From TrEMBL:
Keyword Cytoplasm: no
Assigned keywords, A-Z: DNA-binding, Repressor, Transcription, Transcription regulation
One Pfam family, short name: TetR_C_1
PANTHER family the UniProt entry points to: HTH-TYPE TRANSCRIPTIONAL REGULATOR RUTR, TRANSCRIPTIONAL REGULATORY PROTEIN
The protein's name: TetR/AcrR family transcriptional regulator C-terminal domain-containing protein
SUPFAM superfamilies: Homeodomain-like (SSF46689), Tetracyclin repressor-like, C-terminal domain (SSF48498)
Presence of keyword Glycosyltransferase: no
UniProt source species: Streptomyces galilaeus
Coiled coil: none
PROSITE patterns xrefs: HTH_TETR_2
Domain HTH tetR-type residues, every copy: 13-73
Length: 232
């Protein structure tokens, strides 16, 4: 950096927005585990104590970073097709989370939803209600969707690793798992696993859920009636 550039950088006022934007960019580059208040201060060319005027501690920094990322999600589209509106918003969230691979971990680690996450979830609930789902059904839909509302989901097990024919000994003991592994499509960049098409699997599950919710809406489903039918 030249002396002129350094002087210009020093003139940029330090505020919370700049701290958070820099922290997000740093996490994108180095990973969330490498992020520290000291490292962030170095990136901003300030002493660490200067950061504490804008974020009280590391946890507050992570809260703000989560909100900054969630703030990148597209607003809901307009239109009467609630499934299209919800699907588009969730896939936007997924694109954002893929741009910031560390963000899902940070969002999950929060002890309570941050303001931007709460606003996003409130908006999503509103999309379901605008689509004609009752408050009762929407409540259970939100539970069923879980982290998928924010564009990510926890897989049952890690299937990453070298792809190829299953080990014969494994196939002998677990024939159905071996059969599924042999038929999986290859996607080297997948976060689901080395043998799965991550994006396809996500959209497949999302569409199944949305179609199922629409079926329940048409049936006039209520939790009271569902619980009564399951009583012995």
């Amino acid at each position: 950096m030249t002396r002129q550039e350094a002087t210009h950088t020093q003139r940029i006022p330090l505020n919370k927005d700049r701290v958070l934007r820099t922290a997000v960019a740093l996490a994108d580059t180095t990973g969330i585990d490498a992020l520290s208040m000291r490292r962030l201060a170095q990136e901003l060319d300030v002493v660490p104590m200067a950061l504490y005027k804008h974020v009280a501690n590391k946890e507050e920094l992570l809260d703000g970073m989560a909100d900054a990322v969630v703030g990148e999600i597209d607003p809901p589209a307009s239109g009467p097709d609630w499934q299209r509106v919800v699907r588009g918003r969730i896939l936007s969230a997924r694109r954002v989370l893929l741009r910031h691979p560390w963000a899902a971990r940070v969002i999950e680690s929060r002890t309570a939803p941050t303001p931007a996450v709460l606003a996003y979830l409130d908006s999503m609930a509103g999309s379901f209600r605008d689509g004609g789902l009752s408050a009762d059904l929407t409540h259970h839909v939100m539970h069923a969707m879980g982290s998928r509302l924010l564009g990510f989901s926890q897989e049952l097990f890690d299937t990453s690793g070298p792809s190829g024919p299953p080990d014969p000994a494994l196939a002998a003991h677990y024939p159905h798992i071996a059969e599924l592994a042999a038929t999986a499509a290859h996607d080297e960049g997948s976060t689901v696993g080395g043998g799965c098409d991550d994006q396809f699997e996500f959209e497949f599950a999302l569409d199944l859920l949305l179609d199922g919710f629409e079926g329940l809406r048409r049936q006039g489903w209520t939790s009271a009636r569902a619980k009564a039918s399951h009583r012995p």
